[in-house]
Design brief:
13 strands; 15% strand; alpha/beta; 38% helix; 11 helices; seven-stranded mixed β-sheet; Aspartate Aminotransferase, domain 2; Aspartate Aminotransferase, domain 1; 2 domains
Amino acid sequence: MIIIIMKKNIIYFDNAATSWPKPPQTLTAMQDYLQNVGGSPGRSGHRLSLEAARIVFETREMLSQLFNVPDPLRIVLTRNATESLNIAIFGLLNPGDHVITSDMEHNSVMRPLRAAEARGVDITVVPCGSNGLIDPGDVVKAIRTNTKAIFITNASNVTGTIMPIADIGKIAREHDLVLCVDAAQTAGCYPIDVEAMHIDLLAFTGHKSLFGPSGTGGLYIRDGLENKIEPICFGGTGSRSELEVQPNFMPDRYESGTPNTIGIAGLTAGIEFIRSKGLKNITAHEKQLTGLFLQGIEAIKGVTVYGIKDEYRQIPVVSFNIQGMDPAKVSLELDEQFEIMSRPGLHCAPAAHKTLGTYPSGTVRFSFSCFNTEEQIIKAIEAIRQIGKGRKRK
């Protein structure tokens, strides 16, 4: 067995992959579930099963409040944003339908869409600008008579650029289209209002800015839309057990099998942590860190920063390269010499890197959270400066 001892002075800038550390409340809630609850929600009538069901419903309530969802039962709990997007794509689309997406999408959107394309769905990929931003006018131009839906990221996982979702949502409503938003990078660190932004489907994950564990996530489905979205998984739901067909009501229609209750308990605690800190306060702190980093790194010769480069128009995600150095090499040096954790490469978004001109080697990506500090940002800027000087000496 290999045991890795984590050093206290590690600087973790890979929160876009998964947030770390988690709040102590997350760990405590998961341990409490295992030690003191342990029941399966909806599968029995005893007190431990009822307590497990309470935990699950509390999570739905908190998520609905966070996203301004009118009814907590509109929240389907899934394993991650990828599963949520698969439900939305394969449950909604049929051969002959046309959909619109952008070239800044993560493969969690692009791959299932390409699979749907192989089954007869037509796709238009709207190109974004070199800053990663989509023009809503280009979305309008892409609409056809058979267009059914728009699938788009809330913010790029490569550049952090925030998309004009409210504008695109208005376009979708005007043309009677379904708007599905991938909020994997924004849920928990950026305000989301499904009503004001005209979002019909919202896919999110729990292990990033919601500070839950892996294996948690969800999908918001607008009222009435479940009649147009077929489940992609069938089985026991703990409800209507006398039927051999899938229940047709929310959220059971899409929640087959025993849920990840221990993970959901951790997710509940993660959301409660956000509420206790205040989403506005978390967002403000992360913007401050992003602005400080952008200001410092752009002053270093030989460093190229990608995206919109404005902390008020992006989430705390920044991609950069050092001239003449492979991003994988830079990331390795950041780890080995400075104990800074980052992610190099294509970030599961090859089309985005083609748009930025960074394909096939990709970029080095830093992504911050509320647990990061200004001192860490300053250390990272100096580390990049030193790595760049080392390149010149070689």
